Amino acid sequence: MNASLMPQDIYDHLASRVLGQEAALRAISVAVYKHVNRIGGARILMIGNSGTGKTTIMKAIEELYSSRESLAAFRAMTIMNARTLLNEAGDVDTFGIFRSLESRVAAMLGEKRPPPGSALADGKRHGLS
């Protein structure tokens, strides 16, 4: 249990990086507190119009996890937006979702391209891209 990190601490961190959004930051702070202390669910889903700060809030949470060694177990997170889920025709783009996830993981691990044998490296050979 991460008792030293209280919802107010999380809120203060997020509020120092996100302008406005006080009500959302309060709710997110409690959700993050519950998540890191394994109380309740482990996922956050934010829905809203483009430009309302969803990605900014999630990046601030990601920064919080990166700034505290006690939160290292929570650093693997995925931030996806709607345009990642659908292709130009409006169909669910499963390969695009995995491409986005693999790209994010590669960025986190410092890799510049997918390793041989990965889904992306093999995608063209299997007609997936």
Automatic annotation (TrEMBL):
<feature type="region of interest" description="Disordered">
    <location>
        <begin position="110"/>
        <end position="129"/>
    </location>
</feature>
<dbReference type="Pfam" id="PF01078">
    <property type="entry name" value="Mg_chelatase"/>
</dbReference>
<dbReference type="InterPro" id="IPR000523">
    <property type="entry name" value="Mg_chelatse_chII-like_cat_dom"/>
</dbReference>
<feature type="domain" description="Magnesium chelatase ChlI-like catalytic">
    <location>
        <begin position="17"/>
        <end position="117"/>
    </location>
</feature>
<protein>
    <recommendedName>
        <fullName>Magnesium chelatase ChlI-like catalytic domain-containing protein</fullName>
    </recommendedName>
</protein>
<dbReference type="InterPro" id="IPR027417">
    <property type="entry name" value="P-loop_NTPase"/>
</dbReference>
<dbReference type="GO" id="GO:0005524">
    <property type="term" value="F:ATP binding"/>
</dbReference>
